[in-house]
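Person: Please work through this fold.
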Amino acid sequence: MAGSIQVWDRAAARMTEEIVHGGGGVRFLYRTMVGRRLESLVLSRRFVSRLMGSWHGARFSKGMIPGFIRSQSIRMEEFEPAEYSSFNDFFVRRFRDGARNFHQDGSVLPAFAEARYLAFSKVTPDMRFPVKGTSMAPSPILAVPEEAGIDPGRFRGGPLLIARLCPADYHRYHYPDSGRTASTWTVHGRYHSVNPVALAALGDVFVRNERRVAILATERFGCLAYVEVGALGVGRIVQTHDEAEPFRRGGEKGMFLFGGSTVMVFGEPGAWTPSADLLEKTGQGIETLIRLGEPVGFRGQQPKP
């Protein structure tokens, strides 16, 4: 991964190279002593990401849009036609009707974000994979406050999906099933990058970073801990659905303003199993690019092919 990020594209059935926005800057920040000190002391602070968010929300920032589309090879025909008032307005663009569809089989857990996925069938407290030093244990990531009345132990030994969104991606995220929101809270923290280069350098990014947690009581997949992780440059994590209201499978939950970011979904043991192809690629240390709404898991045990 010296100069690029290789991911498995499920739809194309081949390895592809991810176009890293600001890749040289990321490598400087996380692979040099000067860069790491700069990132740790200044750039990961909340005010820096908020300033970046304000800049990308200003009208003059829309001049960045054409060059970003070209450099990231974004297929704009997949999105609703619109006149964007700022770069952030473009950043949270919506898919056209019919561009993506949620899998309708109730036994299938559909992809809640269009992203690069890692999957784990059983999360244990000491698990440090796929990045050395990165803890996937639910308790420190969820950081459940006492008033929430939630036992984080209910997710110990259960499945986990990690969806990493790079800046070129669709940055709205969705509900994988119908149900209601049992509890929500925010865990305040820094805004480190979630790029694999940063994960390899820092290890505990998912515990350090700002995140929003929602406990979802779903109809078919038990209780889910849905974690939205902020990252370097992410000005805000926005909830677009009223969490006091029930949600529907495929409905929009929220969006990230400018920056790469991550959604993590923890499940209860035995409630569902991640897709076999995701588990296989994760075991090889490879992320899988998944389109919104495609299968990423199955209720109970995955059926035999």
About this structure: Residues 5-299 form one domain.
